[in-house]
Amino acid sequence: MKNGALRLIIIIFTGATLLLLAACGTTAPTRFYLLSPMADPASTSGKNGVTILLAPVALPEHLNRPQIVTRQNGTQVRVDEFNRWAEPMAVHVSEILAENLSLLLGTEGVTITNRYKQAHGDFHLSVKILRFDGWPGKEATLDCRWNLRRADEPAGAHSERFSVTQAVEGSDYPDLVVTMSRMLADLSREIAQRIAAH
Fold first, then answer.
1. What is the pLDDT of residue 159?
2. pLDDT on residue 19
3. Under a CB-based contact definition with an 8 Å cutoff, are residues 110 and 119 in contact?
4. Which domain covers residue 66, as residue numbers?
5. Structural domain count, the chain
6. Does 59 map to a domain?
7. Do the domain assignments include residue 4?
8. What is the pLDDT of residue 43?
9. DSSP secondary structure string, the chain?
10. Residues sharing a CB contact under 8 Å with residue 58, sequence separation 6 or more, in sequence order
11. Neighbours of 117 (CB within 10 A)
12. pTM
């Protein structure tokens, strides 16, 4: 009787351990994402020699984290532990914006610098993002303020607001990232048009 009870306890314990191990083994893998620069435009603005000093893009603290942040409604956000950016978000957005502007303007003279106010360039550009999030299968929003001025103009000479919301054509995180990249390309085009008009 004692041997039978002991055997039953061992079987139950072994089964529980196996179930626990199986549960641990089904943890979702962490996936990492990067935004994409825009494709090469068919033509550039002809500003081949222009130099642009870009201040590092400013992001709200709740977005400047490794995890991708999604917005479920107007006030509730979700921080996803298993879907993350592959590099710091503020740095990454700055790099994509700089690359897009280089492509659109046909110049290698776009520099990201913390000392852009003291450095020399044809234009000084700063971007402050207010909102840059969305929800897979629904929509995404980019809302920001940007300031562009010639080197000889005072700060705040040309302050603009850019805001766009686009449908996310797909129900997973890669679809959201593609949409976010597309919105950054739209912002880049607006800035490039302003630079080309000077």
1. 86
2. 58
3. no
4. 49-197
5. 1
6. yes
7. no
8. 61
9. -HHHHHHHHHHHHHHHHHHHHHHHHTPPPPEEE---PPPPPSS--S-TT--EEEPPPB--TTTSSSEEEEESSSS-EEEEEEEEESS-HHHHHHHHHHHHHHHHHT-S-EEE-TTTTTS--SEEEEEEEEEEEE-TTSEEEEEEEEEEEETTSPTTSSEEEEEEEEE-SSSSHHHHHHHHHHHHHHHHHHHHHHHHH-
10. 90, 126, 127, 128, 129
11. 12
12. 0.82
Q: 12 lies in a domain?
A: no
Output the domain CATH number for residue 85: 3.40.50.10610
**Which one-letter amino acid corresponds to residue 113?**
T
* More confident call, 198 vs 23: 198
Q: CA quadruple 56, 129, 84, 189: dihedral positive or negative?
A: negative
Rounded Cα distance, 145 and 51, in Å: 21
Q: Is residue 132 part of a domain?
A: yes
Beta strands 159-167 and 139-150, pairing class: antiparallel
Task: Tell me the mean pLDDT in the region 144-150.
Answer: 94
Q: How many residues does the chain have?
A: 198
pLDDT tens readout for residues 88-120: 999 999 999 999 999 999 999 999 998 766 667
Q: Quote the CA–CA distance of 166 and 189 in Å, as a whole number.
A: 16
